[in-house]
Design brief:
With 299 residues, the chain is an all-alpha fold. It has a single domain (21-295), classed as Orthogonal Bundle (Tetracycline Repressor, domain 2). Helix content is 77%, strand content 0%. The chain is built from 15 helices and no strands. The longest helix has 24 residues, at 46-69. This is UbiA-like protein EboC.
Length: 299
């Protein structure tokens, strides 16, 4: 095997570590938060671009370190992954993850000091989850949810003063991700009926919470309703199946649907705050993420 082939295989392995389909869902968080901030009416999109770069670094770095910390476990349960298969080194992955996290925080700092603080908090929370949180049945899902909730607020931070008004929006992805994370624990060996039911109830709570945003004066729930219905269809059906039959196969299907549907959740938020066309713009990320999910693993 020549050097070119080896380099290509190595590059592909590190791309697999990044899970590009998941990073696209993180972009949707930023765009939803951007809509809630009210800044979307401005002509200037430079802050949005900085925040998209920030979340790429933060999410990408966090997910790379997930595989770094799981290298020994993956060697037993998922030997086909880049690190245990030898296609990517643990040292190389650590350098990649560190570089991405630094880029994420620096990019966030270009927007505001609040954005920088949030970026640092997200990076710290991601590392905490990778190293310790994922092994805790209660703290783990909340920890992961905080990463996504913080990411949504990172989008809001383009107008720092608005965070004080809309901090509670972070609770929506926190609860949603907690549901996915709790369910995902059964991807390898299967799950428990109680866990599946809990995850399903958490998703229902998210849907009710999105409807509840209609109480806000600047959130148009009727505009967001078509996207909310789409979210309910795409997530509830596989989650119900996983709760009734908690096999690894059903759980993987439900988790994948839940992760990709983060974009629809963000679309629902974005449309309510910024209108139907902006919602469609966010939703346009879904087919991109779905295509990438056919090439790169999501979990």
């Amino acid at each position: 095997m020549n050097t070119t082939t080896l380099n290509t295989r190595s590059l592909w392995a590190y791309l697999q570590l990044l899970r590009p389909a998941n990073i696209i869902t993180a972009w949707a968080d930023i765009m939803a938060g951007f809509a809630a901030s009210g800044y979307f009416i401005q002509v200037d999109i430079v802050p949005l671009l900085w925040l998209l770069l920030a979340t790429t670094g933060l999410y990408g770095g966090g997910i790379v370190f997930n595989d770094v910390f799981d290298a020994e476990l993956d060697a037993q349960e998922r030997p086909e992954r880049p690190i245990p298969s030898g296609r990517a080194s643990q040292t190389g992955a650590s350098l990649l993850g560190s570089s991405l996290l630094i880029v994420g925080v620096v990019a966030a700092a270009q927007v505001s000091w609040v954005s920088a603080v949030l970026g640092l908090a997200i990076a710290t929370s991601a590392l905490l989850y990778d190293a310790f949180g994922k092994h805790h049945p209660i703290f783990g899902p909340i920890n992961m949810g905080f990463c996504r909730g913080g990411n949504l607020l990172l989008g809001v931070s383009v107008v720092p003063s608005v965070i004080g008004d809309y901090w509670f929006l972070a609770l929506i992805p926190i609860v949603y991700i907690a549901a996915i994370t709790a369910l995902s624990r059964g991807e390898v060996h299967g799950g428990k009926l109680s866990t599946g039911i809990t995850a399903l109830l958490l998703v229902v709570a998210v849907i009710v919470g999105l409807l509840g945003l209609g109480l806000l004066t600047n959130y148009q729930v009727l505009t967001a309703l078509p996207f909310l219905i789409l979210l309910a269809i795409r997530v509830l059906i596989p989650f119900i199946k996983a709760a009734r039959q908690p096999t690894p196969e059903q759980i993987k299907i439900a988790v994948k649907a839940g992760v990709l549907s983060l974009i629809i959740l963000d679309t629902t938020l974005a449309a309510g705050f910024a209108g139907f066309p902006y919602g469609l713009l966010v939703l346009s990320l879904l087919p991109i993420s779905m295509i990438l999910s056919q090439i790169f693993a999501v979990t």
